[in-house]
Amino acid sequence: MTFYKIKDVILSFFPLLLLYFLSFSSFETLKEFSNLIIFSFNLQMILIYFYVLKYPDMLGYGHIFIAGIINDTAIGIPLGTSSLSYLILSFITTYIRNATIRSKMTAEWVIFLPIVFLSNLIYFIVINSFSNLSFYYVELLRNSFFTFLFFPFFYYFFSFLSKLNKKEK
Amino acid sequence: MSDSRDDFIIAIRYALLKKSTKQKFSLFFLIILSIATITLDRSSLSVMSTSRAVLNDLIYQVASITSVPGKSINYLAKVKKNYFSIYEQNKFLQDEVIKLKNNQFNNIFLRTEIDNLKKILTLTDTRSLEGDISIPARIILDQKSPYMQSLLANKGTKNGILKGMSVFSKNILIGTVVEVNYMTSRILLLTDLNSKIPVIIQNSDVNAILSGGGSKNDFFLEYLPDEFNLEPDQVIFTSGKGGFLAAGIPVAQSYLNKKNEVAIKALADPDQASIIFINNGQLNK
Asked: Which chain A residue is nearest to residue B61, measuring alpha carbons?
């Protein structure tokens, strides 16, 4: 009984826990696997896009804002940069959710591409305007591209977890 | 036409201002809050720098715990790699020992010669003793994102760390302190794009600026004379210009890369740094 309760709590808070974990550990690259560093992607963006689009009640905007602040502190970039980028992503996603009647994975995947590029553009503009940091723009582009590319895999994974959560309830 | 524009504006307004049942804040409020945070962070208010330092300390401590799974994976991968390459490593190390022994004798001879020449020229040793005191620290977090390559150390203002201090690992310079909090500090690695240090090249009087290129095998030299050609196996030392670092600290070396081009690699390996020494720019003791 207790095990099922714990499982239920974990599944209900999974997106929040994962978002905070990723922000604290600043998961942006696959740095643990030096051969795979080229495939670095932004899992936070996929997570936010998926849950704001499909299950908005599981991931609050306030948590997205705080996770962004934590991520900025951990990476060492101006405070609020990631928050703004994630909130812009959430805003467009909310708009799409309201405007869409029938959702389809392929359509959501295609729409994800301009959204990722736009939120990364916001990120890039803020870093360039509010700090003296310089970085390879190609890395940001590559990161955006792989974030888009890995989306279907995580889409099915998160859908599976959400279905499990529903079953538990 | 006007109807569709109205619909669009209504949808935008709805997305920005409407709060669903479990949302406590509207997106509009949080976006404004983010912009305010960015602006305040940029400002030089003392309240902001104090609160940022407290926030940094708190988040770095939690981040050092959350990074444990990643570190464990990294550790296991290294153990596996080392296990399978022990024979090659042993052979390589034996050759290195022979080379180093030869260099050591050479160094002793050169040191003696320099000391004798200094005596003849009545020059005093400019190396200050008070600058040689190093503060040992432990790396709590390794932050190598595409945007910033830095390490987080477990020592801060409490332990006498100041912004701009130099950081050494195994007697080789690896970076400088760019952010100091009460209990922690952030070290910008030499490999970062934002790292720029004045250097001099072995067997030449050429001064340049060594910039990081994003990885330990990807440095580049700026402000080199047009006619100068870098050769492989030349060591790059700090020049001491600007008083930022002591002169003569080895930092990088030129080598022939896979494309048969002369490239520059770091002498230190920041990935392997776990215990570091922080001092005010003199040679590490």
From this structure: A24
